[in-house]
């Protein structure tokens, strides 16, 4: 029988409680044994989910100093991701790192350099890469169902993000970094190209400082101070000629709706994420519609792909495969977000190469 991997968790916030711990608790070859969290009340909930007590640490450095941990899950507010991950790598730990990997381009690249040659697995939490829905979409595109991809688009309309820290630029990195790195990663993956230019338009239509609203978890939220847009339109141009647009809003009257499309020279594919459905138009033939559910019938918590991403990480830690969504993919998904943030602030088109030259 395989000895379970021993995990430490740094940060016991909402996404850990709702998604990561319930998933990890279903994996027979993983045991979460320790956690570092500033709020003592969160340990009680975590231990109830896991069904056993945790070794508790006020300082994550003390957790990382343990020599009996195989891996750590880092799921703290965004501005601490880079420093904690660097410390984990220095301590010889494999890392599952929630997105975004950093709140600055410099810090993001520093993680790529810190991991290089270490022999340690670092996986970034771009969960849609592991979703059977989006993997089926990717397979269809790779199989030539729509010819050569030329244009992609994504619309996400949803209620407000939870937590005050997400509305502060310093803590979150901005809305595009915190939330929309998921969508930019999907563009990179499905188009198979590299972003070259970006322009963003956005503002605050409703979620200004002091506004009371209902967040996506259904809780009442009074925004203390907002430094981020509540709606935006972002246009991307890719070096190989493709183009993509992202429309977002955080003040929908309904909970959530996400649609993504990729148009090629021989067809169109549209993913309706909320109902887990793919619509495929091949040439001028009839439109096809089909579901892409988890083949084991698993109702994955919060995000589609939440189970598969942890299974994949376990295999990487055990040396059975390479990390699929690695730090280079994490960086590539963040790059358009940083470009869009710069464009929104400057009011101009942002060139990738000029932005990257600032950290070279």
Descriptive report:
- The chain is α/β, with parallel strands linked by helices.
- The chain is 32% helix and 26% strand.
- Strands 16-15-14-13-7-12-11-8-17 form a 9-stranded mixed beta sheet.
- Helix 1 (14-24) packs parallel to helix 2, helix 4 packs parallel to helix 5 and helix 5 (105-115) runs antiparallel to helix 11.
- The relative contact order is 0.16.
- The model has no long low-confidence stretch (mean pLDDT 96).
SSE series: EHEHEHEHEHEHEHHHEEEEEEEEEHHEH
Low-confidence stretches: none
Q: Which word captures the global form?
A: globular
Strand elements, count: 17
Q: Mean pLDDT, rounded to whole units?
A: 96
What is the number of helices?
A: 12
Helix residue percentage: 25-40%
Our estimate of the beta-strand percent is: 25-35%
Secondary-structure-derived class = alpha/beta
Radius of gyration (CA) equals 20 Å
Widest sheet, order of strands = 16-15-14-13-7-12-11-8-17
What is the end-to-end distance?
A: 48 Å
Query: Major β-sheet, in short?
Result: 9 strands, mixed
